[in-house]
Every structure is written in structure tokens, then in C-alpha cells.
Specification:
single chain, globular, 417 residues, alpha+beta
């Protein structure tokens, strides 16, 4: 694997042009016409990148702007945009059906991602999505919500991690994720406790947002930004994530975010030790994807001092959710022996949430987790334990610049001040 997996800091012309086109679209500007024509190979690479990152439909405004696109590229863009618009309307009505069904049974819920993210875009229909995500504001109502889904004709999808969400499938094969937490548990109990203790506050701040003619219960802007950051972080710590989530970040902060929401967001990322990760995301969105510099300055904390090029390269290589490379699995907080032990223990607790509460069972569960991990890598992914370890080391060597979960101590409180 050698040179193939080394992180490059430079970007190809195709990658730079995709950044420029997305920045123009997301910021409401006009894409700059290239100084010299692109080759067919260059356009093919731009098309491939946009497709694997699920952002091709977002480029449709280029057609309306009269941007000089090759005929083959324009046809692919128009076809993909039509499919996305059709899928978006389908998912919007399904999401509305789900939240209304829960509401009629007295179950408070908020839409995550999907409609909530699409509402920030100039053309919501062009934001590509493939499933529905709903957050239960009172986790104790999970059993009641399950009955609602069964009544709707949904089936529980087997084999999914149920620590923080369940996955249900409609008769048409669309996944509906039912979340009981803002994020899957992290390897920090202080963070997990913080998130659990904030559910009551989130419930009190749910608002209605009209997207494509339908009203959806969504989180307030500051809460939505924090949840999106958690979502990106969890994908980053696993196989990675691509440009689409960065686009969500750009349009969210380029939109109307009240000062009080900015302040709450900043308070929460400081309390959870996520200022470095937030700064990294904000910095590369500003440099490459059209996030306004004045707005970015309002939420930057000065924690991150690393290379935005390195992290953008990581995101580009991950594609949409890091699934193209079998050895991409986790990123650690560092490369020390204790970082590996912490992650291994965390995976054991995720895999066996009930048994891991009993201290005497830990040695047995460690052994079972290790055997299962090696077997799945070999049989399902076709790679060895050492290949995963090597790739993990390569991807973890720059995470120290993010200062993840650092300086928590007394900064976490059960209530905001």
C-alpha cells in the first residue's frame, strides 16, 4: 500500500475546479470561467469526483449560469439533478409522514440532516439524500415510537448497531433511522453525559421550518450546527466523510444564524473540547468552498493550527463515507499505545453495551471483540488485522492538531450558564 496511502498536500486541477464551482454555487456567486479549456480527461475526473462525493446535483446552477460545460457533462448533470429532485420530494413527503405519525401519538421528534439540512440550500431539492433521520426528544418513548413504525408498515432492519439509533425500512426499501441520542457514544464518558443531559434543552427549542412547502420540526440553528459537527466527527473517526457534509456546513453558516445561536454553539464546543475540530472544518470550508470569511471569524476559536490542506486531502480521499477503501476504519486521537487501548475498549463497549457494564466480564469481552474484529476483516473485507492497524496509524498521525476532547475537566456543566 506504501505510497498509495501517503497523504498528499497538493490538489489536481480537477479537484481545484470542483472546489471553485461548489464555492460559487454555495455562496450564490458565479463560477469563474477557466483561463484555458479543460481536457476531456479533466472533465471526466470532475464528474467522477462530484458523483462519488454526492454533490453533482449541487452544480446544476452552472447550467442556468451558462457556464461552458461539455455536452456530455451537462447531460449527466441534468439527468442526475432530475433523479435527485424526484428522490428529494419522495423523501420529504416520507419524512413528513413519519414525524406527523409520531406527533399524533404524542411523541416529540426532530428531523436531522435530510430536510433539516436541505432547508439551508438555495435550491433544497438539489441536496442529495438517501434516507430519513429522526431524533426522539424523549428517549423513554422509544417503545411507543416502535409501535408507530410497525403500524406504518416499517420493518426493523437487522444487524444495525442499536446503541444510539434503530434502523427501520419501508416497503420501498428506504431506511428510516430513529435516533435516541444526538450521536453514537464517544470514548469519553464526559462527552456522552453532556449530550444526554442536553436533551431536555433541545426539546424546549424545537422549531418548525418550511422546506419545499412542508413544515418540519427541526433543531435551532446553534443546536443543528452542533449536531452536524458531531455527525462529521463520528464519520471522521471511523472511515471518514466527503464533501457533501462540508457543503451542509457552508450553507448553514452562510445563512441567517442569530447571535444567540452562535454563542450557544461556541459555548457547547468549548465545553466538549471540540473547538479544534470545529476550527478545522470552518477553516477549510472558508478556504475552498465559499464560507464567508466574516461569518467564519465569528465562530473560529484559534485552537486549530494544523494544515487545512492535509485535512481536505483526507476528506477528498474518503469520498462520501470512506467506503471505497476497505482498510479505512478508524482514526485515533493520537498514535500512542494508550490511544489504541482506549479505542479497542470503546469498540468493546459499543459492541456489548449491556455486558460491558459488568467489570468482571471485560477480559472475556475484550477477547471476543478482538476475535470478531479479526474474523470480520478477513472474511468480509478481505484484509488482515495488520493492514487495518497500518492504515489507522497513517490516518491518526495528524489528529493531534485537533486537540479532541482536551481540557474538559471543569468546563462541562449539567446546565448552561
Amino acid at each position: 500500500m506504501g505510497n498509495k496511502n501517503k497523504i498528499k498536500k497538493t490538489f489536481s486541477r480537477s479537484e481545484k475546479e470542483l472546489f471553485a464551482c461548489l464555492a460559487a454555487v454555495l455562496s450564490g456567486g458565479v463560477a469563474k470561467v477557466p483561463d484555458r479549456p479543460f481536457s476531456n480527461e479533466c472533465w471526466e475526473e470532475i464528474l467522477r469526483l462530484a458523483q462519488v462525493h454526492a454533490v453533482l446535483p449541487l452544480l446544476y446552477p452552472l447550467v442556468e449560469q451558462g457556464y461552458p460545460l461539455p455536452e456530455s457533462f451537462r447531460i449527466c448533470l441534468e439527468q442526475e439533478s432530475r433523479r435527485t429532485v424526484q428522490q428529494s420530494y419522495h423523501l420529504m413527503f416520507l419524512t413528513h409522514y413519519v414525524v406527523k405519525g409520531l406527533e399524533e401519538e404524542g411523541i416529540a421528534a426532530a428531523v436531522l440532516k435530510g430536510a433539516a439540512a436541505a432547508g439551508d440550500y438555495p435550491v433544497p431539492e438539489l441536496r442529495k439524500s438517501g434516507d430519513v433521520d429522526v431524533l426522539l426528544m424523549e428517549p423513554e418513548q422509544l417503545g411507543k415510537a416502535e409501535k408507530v413504525f410497525q403500524k406504518m408498515g416499517f420493518d426493523r432492519k437487522p444487524g444495525e448497531n442499536g446503541n444510539h439509533h434503530q434502523v427501520w425500512r419501508t416497503r420501498e426499501g428506504i431506511d428510516v433511522e430513529l435516533h435516541v441520542m444526538m450521536a453514537e457514544p464517544f470514548d469519553s464518558e464526559k462527552i456522552n453525559s453532556f449530550l444526554k443531559n442536553r436533551m431536555d434543552q433541545l426539546r424546549q427549542r424545537i422549531r418548525l421550518d418550511n422546506v419545499m412547502g412542508l413544515d418540519f420540526p427541526v433543531l435551532e440553528k446553534g443546536d443543528h450546527a452542533f449536531q452536524l459537527l458531531l455527525h462529521m466527527l463520528q464519520h471522521f473517526l471511523r472511515a471518514g466523510f466527503g464533501l457533501k457534509l462540508l457543503c451542509d456546513w457552508v450553507v448553514l453558516w452562510n445563512g441567517m444564524v442569530p447571535r444567540t445561536e452562535q454563542e450557544r454553539y461556541l459555548r457547547w464546543i468549548r465545553q466538549t473540547g471540540l473547538t479544534g475540530f470545529s476550527d478545522m472544518i470552518t477553516s477549510l470550508c472558508t478556504k475552498y468552498l465559499g464560507l464567508g470569511r466574516e461569518r467564519a471569524e465569528e465562530i473560529l476559536t484559534g485552537t486549530f493550527q494544523g494544515s487545512v490542506e492535509v485535512f481536505m486531502r483526507e476528506i477528498l480521499d474518503a469520498e462520501e463515507f470512506g467506503l471505497h477503501e476497505k482498510s479505512r476504519m478508524v482514526v485515533l486521537r493520537g498514535n500512542s499505545f494508550m490511544d489504541y487501548i482506549r479505542e479497542f475498549h470503546h469498540q468493546m463497549r459499543l459492541g456489548y453495551p449491556g455486558g460491558s457494564r459488568l467489570l468482571p466480564l471485560w477480559p472475556v469481552l475484550w477477547a471476543v471483540t478482538f476475535v470478531k474484529f479479526c474474523r470480520n476483516n478477513r472474511k468480509i473485507r478481505g484484509i488482515s488485522f495488520f493492514e487495518v492497524l497500518k492504515r489507522t496509524k497513517e490516518r491518526s498521525r495528524y489528529t493531534k492538531d485537533l486537540y479532541l476532547f482536551k481540557n474538559l475537566g471543569k468546563t462541562i456543566r449539567d446546565t448552561d450558564h
